[in-house]
């Protein structure tokens, strides 16, 4: 799975990408097309690089970093040129220019990084030989044409053109024949460097992305996660950057949450507006950020590596597919169950399953789901409003209304009973009192009959 | 900038380029979108090609770069694509012919010009404007302009002089005062009123579409700022409002004005004023007395009458002295 596949995920990863200050369009393309890492080794190596870049941007002077960023801005998208190189096609002036340009650029970036002890943090292939091929006069300037020094005949023809502009048309035709020969020769010599040139472009993209991630970590106060060895993920003071930013506009502080979950299913209950969905969104976001090597929005985090991540949020009505909200939800949970039967590690985050159907069947569906997703390879975190028998599941409850304000903290409880705070919360929202009073009376009647 | 196809814009560019001091100044040339076709795409008449001189910098599309008929050294390939490929910038190493097709939007053009000035220290950039992209003549892009007009715009000399004088009048509209310029500069949408104390009030924050702008309740109004296009309907509304008889209408620049000459004359005659936030300098007007259908006006008389009407030098670049 690639980053571009989850960009529209309701967990809000788009927000993180929007706030990533990348220098080149190619770096964005490279990042969006990068695969999700699924081994602890890959993830740790990526964070190793990121740590070095965080040190780099905190210790190195701003003008120096700006010079480096400016260089990275100049990185072009060489995919077509690279494809031509791999196909052993003859390159034209524009493509030869691009190759020379990136070779010189890579050398500059290497030098800028090496000057600050960053040599080898990202492996940049040395393309000095490519530069030599495309820079016969040793000018070291990123410009290109089929230079006079490639062929004595070109030199003479061009001199003649300047002297006799009236003969230019014929002379150009003759010159272009020689230019074609030169280009064919140059292209043949460059075929051997096709892989190195591609690696160079990717290395420059990785540097661009790493600096952007490092700056994002500072701006949004993100942390470096540790990799969990026991399959349990633990977050201290976890927050959702997007929700935090929205609240900050209204001068409201985001209350961070501590949470840990592992192979035992975890059930979160709590009042409406208690932040249950935000907890699931944040957990999904953090898992993706971890497996794509970004900073994590928490004070501290230890995260277990997963092969697949499923975030089922009930309200994804799919008009185009002609599915009702219930059908869409059932389909997405079905995918989780199918995945859980494969021999892979799955993280399943399910928000209020079966909420749109009647409470009798809904309760049964949720209780059964808890049992079906009880495999060792599945980490399940689920929220619900239904009273269900938790069985083996761990139950967490949002503390809820305390002294007139909402406490979003999660506490462990030992029964699955859901709090009955809907009427109080509706009251605090200033909802029509006649309606709420009537509801209260009905509630009393039904309790008495029970 | 040409007022119509075949008014001699390319001929004018050719003339300007042939007289530039290439040795002493770094000069870059481009066009907005397609230009310099060997045959005019619309009327199928012959068009002169652009001849660059050794040492000039130019931007064109990948496709036209490959068709160049000169020796050139590539200095940049942009990330922006046009329908003819990416825009490449190069330096002419010999003189020769080239088809110019530069950045296709005003914003792209602005980026290119900034890059040419910052990274390649250009002294002057010349843009071949396109009729369909008047925005390239906006003062936000270019500081000064040369206007090409001619029989292709109107074959009736009186009409031609009147219509050209109207455009020249728009280009030469007065700048509004400094206070208004700093106050209104950052606002890019809506319609706003400024009262006698210089206080800004919104009439419509979102749009300047005349149907959605209501002026009935505007009191104590010294000036109205129209951030978008100024259209006839709006001007008519202002003119009909007695309270706004002597009002000043401020627009961003002349490319935002879409009112017919008659309407504008009525408004100004009634005591109103139209001013701009940004203004570009009109250096000269050139005329092509021949229309693509073959009709030819008297060049001498046309130059004379037009110069009289607009108080600016008017040239017929191809005129053969009798």
Secondary structure layout:
The complex is a heterodimer of chains A (450) and B (322).
Chain A: H1 13-18, H2 25-32, H3 40-59, H4 62-73, H5 79-86, H6 93-114, H7 128-134, H8 152-163, H9 168-190, H10 194-220, E1 226-227, E2 233-238, H11 241-249, E3 257-261, E4 266-269, H12 276-291, E5 300-303, E6 308-313, H13 325-340, E7 346-351, H14 359-372, E8 378-383, E9 394-402, E10 405-413, H15 422-428, H16 433-449
Chain B: H1 9-18, E1 27-31, E2 50-52, E3 57-61, H2 62-66, E4 72-82, E5 85-92, E6 96-98, H3 106-120, E7 124-128, E8 144-150, H4 157-171, H5 178-184, E9 191-194, E10 200-204, E11 223-226, E12 230-231, H6 232-240, E13 248-251, E14 257-258, H7 261-269, E15 273-276, E16 281-288, H8 299-310, E17 314-315
Helix pairs in contact in B: 4-8, 6-7
What count of structural domains of chain B? Answer: 2
- Mean of all residue-level pLDDT scores of chain A: 90
What CATH architecture label of the largest domain in chain A applies? Answer: Orthogonal Bundle
The number of helical segments of chain B is 8
- Indicate the structural class of chain B: alpha/beta
């Amino acid at each position: 799975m690639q980053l571009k596949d989850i960009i529209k995920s309701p967990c809000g990863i788009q927000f993180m990408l929007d706030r990533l200050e990348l220098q080149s369009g190619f770096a964005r393309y490279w990042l969006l097309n990068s695969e999700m890492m699924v081994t602890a080794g890959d993830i740790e190596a990526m964070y190793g690089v990121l740590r070095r870049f965080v040190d780099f941007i905190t210790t190195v002077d701003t003008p120096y970093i700006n010079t480096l960023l400016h260089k990275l801005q100049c990185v072009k998208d060489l995919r077509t040129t690279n494809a031509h190189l791999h196909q052993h096609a003859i390159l034209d002036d524009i493509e030869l220019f691009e190759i020379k340009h990136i070779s010189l650029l890579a050398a500059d970036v290497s030098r800028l990084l090496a000057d600050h002890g960053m040599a080898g943090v990202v492996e940049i292939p040395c393309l000095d030989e490519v530069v030599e091929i495309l820079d016969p006069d040793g000018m070291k300037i990123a410009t290109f044409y089929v230079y006079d020094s490639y062929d004595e005949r070109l030199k003479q023809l061009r001199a003649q053109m300047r002297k006799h502009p009236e003969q230019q048309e014929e002379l150009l035709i003759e010159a272009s024949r020689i230019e074609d020969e030169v280009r064919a020769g140059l292209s043949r010599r460059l075929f051997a460097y096709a892989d190195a040139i591609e690696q160079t472009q990717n290395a420059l993209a990785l540097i661009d992305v790493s600096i952007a991630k490092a700056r994002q970590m500072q701006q949004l106060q993100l942390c470096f996660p540790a990799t969990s060895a026991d399959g349990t993920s633990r977050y201290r003071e976890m927050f959702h950057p997007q929700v935090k930013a929205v609240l900050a506009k209204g001068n409201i502080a985001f209350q961070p949450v501590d949470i840990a979950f592992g192979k035992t299913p975890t059930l979160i209950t709590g009042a409406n507006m208690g932040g249950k969905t935000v907890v699931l969104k944040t957990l999904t976001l953090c898992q993706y950020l971890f497996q794509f090597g970004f900073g994590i929005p928490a004070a501290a985090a230890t995260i277990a590596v997963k092969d697949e991540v499923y975030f089922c949020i009930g309200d994804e009505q799919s008009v185009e597919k002609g599915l009702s909200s219930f059908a869409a939800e059932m389909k997405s949970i079905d995918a989780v169950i199918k995945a859980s039967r494969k021999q892979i590690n799955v993280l399943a985050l399910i928000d209020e399953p079966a909420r749109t159907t009647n409470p009798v069947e809904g309760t049964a569906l949720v209780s059964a789901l808890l049992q079906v997703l009880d495999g060792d390879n599945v980490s399940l975190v689920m929220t619900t409003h239904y009273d269900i028998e938790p069985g083996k599941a761990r139950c967490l409850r949002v503390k809820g209304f305390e002294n007139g304000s909402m406490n979003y903290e999660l506490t462990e409880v030992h029964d699955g009973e859901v709090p009955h705070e809907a009427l109080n919360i509706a009251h605090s929202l200033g909802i029509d009192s006649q309606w709420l009073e009537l509801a209260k009376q009905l509630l009393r009647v039904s309790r008495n009959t029970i | 900038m040409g007022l119509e196809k075949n008014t001699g814009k390319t001929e004018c560019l050719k003339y300007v380029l042939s007289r530039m001091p290439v040795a002493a100044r770094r000069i870059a040339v481009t066009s907005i979108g397609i230009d310099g076709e060997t045959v005019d795409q619309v009327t199928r008449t012959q068009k002169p090609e652009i001849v660059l001189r050794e040492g000039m910098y130019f931007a064109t599309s990948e496709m036209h770069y490959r068709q160049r008929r000169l020796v050139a050294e590539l200095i940049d390939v942009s990330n922006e694509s046009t329908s003819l490929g990416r825009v490449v910038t190069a330096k002419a190493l010999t003189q020769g012919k080239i088809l110019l097709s530069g950045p296709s939007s005003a914003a792209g053009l602005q980026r290119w010009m900034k890059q040419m000035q910052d990274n390649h220290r250009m002294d002057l950039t010349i843009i071949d404007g396109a009729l369909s992209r008047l925005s390239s003549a906006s003062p936000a892009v270019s500081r000064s302009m040369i206007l090409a007009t001619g029989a292709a715009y109107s074959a009736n000399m009186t009409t031609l002089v009147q219509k050209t004088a109207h455009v020249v009048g728009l280009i030469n509209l007065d700048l509004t005062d400094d206070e208004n310029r700093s106050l209104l500069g950052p606002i890019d949408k809506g319609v706003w009123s400024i009262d006698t104390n210089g206080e800004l009030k919104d009439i419509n924050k979102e749009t300047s579409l005349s149907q959605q702008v209501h002026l009935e309740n505007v009191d104590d109004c010294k000036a109205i700022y129209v951030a978008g296009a100024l259209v006839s309907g709006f001007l008519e509304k202002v003119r009909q409002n007695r309270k706004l008889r002597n009002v000043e209408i401020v627009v961003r620049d002349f490319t935002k004005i879409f009112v017919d000459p008659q309407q504008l004359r009525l408004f100004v005659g009634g005591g109103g004023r139209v001013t701009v936030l940004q203004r570009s300098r009109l250096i000269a007007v050139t005329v092509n007395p021949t229309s693509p259908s073959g009709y030819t006006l008297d060049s001498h008389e046309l130059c004379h009458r037009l110069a009289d009407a607009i108080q600016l030098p008017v040239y017929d670049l191809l005129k053969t002295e009798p």
